[in-house]
Write a structure and sequence with these properties.
340 residues; alpha+beta; Endonuclease, Chain A; 3 domains; 4-stranded mixed beta sheet; 13 strands
Length: 340
């Protein structure tokens, strides 16, 4: 029973069914054995209609020949190693096959599609917004938001109905902590969203839950932050009372650019650098290795220290427990003042 069983038993020329269903048999051979290529994602109801039994589907899932994406939806083919963003894309596709067409992908799911920074603990459910006043709910795989949603706030991304970049950012500014939402808002500005566009979207959401915190976050956004870590750092430093720095601060000496730092406090002769994995990838030039970049950074930092600048570096872990970082910056400020 079933086209797969017939093919697997009949020919050694059929390659393993990959997730895009590329095969080595020509269409004439496929037609003769009764095989019809399947879509990448199939619903349980569709597979049952094709003649597969629930027991057979369970067996195929256990053996790895089908991948269960969520209840009622499978990906055809062997398991793939996917980044969290791409895993969520699959979950979105599977969920939309079972969802009303009058909805739009929104919130963190829309951030995935807009190529914004994402927070992995927010990716377990697909976020959808429906244009109605009540009936929002959270289920195992879906978070249904209900809110006014006009067509001006909806666009198409990868063939899907998605909230626009501005509406996506505003929804996240309303619902996430400032540390998390500012990282997304800064990235959206770097992608081309203007503060005026975001303010226009906010003007359509007056009185909505979370708008006070959204407007506070909006006033903090800055496209000059070049990474999620830099954006997160700005919020944390502000919360612990560190004076706001100049972003992408440049140090010149005798007409020569000695270096540029993520953060600069000129009055304290202190520079701050967030060190994340993406930082060194961003600095790589053609032909350079990561070791080359690290060595160049060390030379640059030595030159800055020779000119009397204090340099403080931190990583993600420091931002989750900022008290020590605050003390380190305070000591650097004192040294900078004495050296001035």
């Amino acid at each position: 029973m079933g086209a797969w069983r017939k093919i697997w038993g009949a020919s050694d020329h059929l390659a393993w069914l990959s997730t895009d269903l590329r095969i080595v048999m020509d269409s004439g051979v496929l037609a003769r054995v009764g095989f019809a290529p399947m879509e990448q994602i199939k619903l349980t109801a569709e597979l049952l209609a094709d003649g597969w039994s629930p027991a057979e589907l369970d067996r195929l899932a256990r053996s790895g020949e089908l991948q269960r994406i969520r209840r009622g939806a499978y990906e055809c083919g062997p398991a793939r190693s996917l980044e969290r963003r791409d895993q969520h894309r699959l979950l979105i596709q599977a969920t939309l096959r079972q969802t009303s067409v009058d909805s739009a992908i929104s919130h963190m799911s829309a951030a995935v599609l807009h190529q914004l920074p994402i927070w992995n603990d927010q990716l377990g459910r697909v976020h959808i917004t429906r244009n109605q006043s009540g009936g929002g709910k959270v289920r195992r795989y879906v978070h249904l938001h209900v809110a006014p949603l006009s067509e001006i706030d909806v666009c198409e991304v990868e063939g899907l109905r998605v909230t626009t970049l501005g509406r996506t950012v505003l929804d996240l500014l309303r619902t996430l902590t400032m540390e998390r939402s500012v990282t997304i808002g800064d990235a959206a500005l770097r992608l081309g969203l203007s503060p005026e566009e975001l303010a226009e979207v906010a003007g359509r959401c007056i009185g909505w839950r979370g708008m006070l915190q959204a407007r506070r976050a909006m006033s903090f956004l800055d496209a000059r932050s070049e990474s999620a870590g830099e954006s997160y750092s700005r919020v944390v430093l502000d919360r612990v009372g560190i004076r706001r720095p100049t972003l992408q601060y440049e140090v010149w000496h005798r007409g020569v650019l000695v270096g540029r730092a993520d953060f600069g406090w000129e009055e304290f002769r202190t520079l701050g650098e967030f060190d994340g994995k993406e930082k060194y990838g961003r600095l790589l030039k053609p032909g350079q290795t990561a070791a080359d970049v690290v060595f160049a950074e060390k030379r640059r930092e030595d030159a800055l220290r020779d000119l009397g600048w204090q340099v403080v570096r931190w990583i993600w872990e420091d931002l989750y427990h900022p008290e020590e970082l605050c003390r380190r910056l305070g000591r650097a400020f004192e040294r900078g003042l004495r050296a001035a």
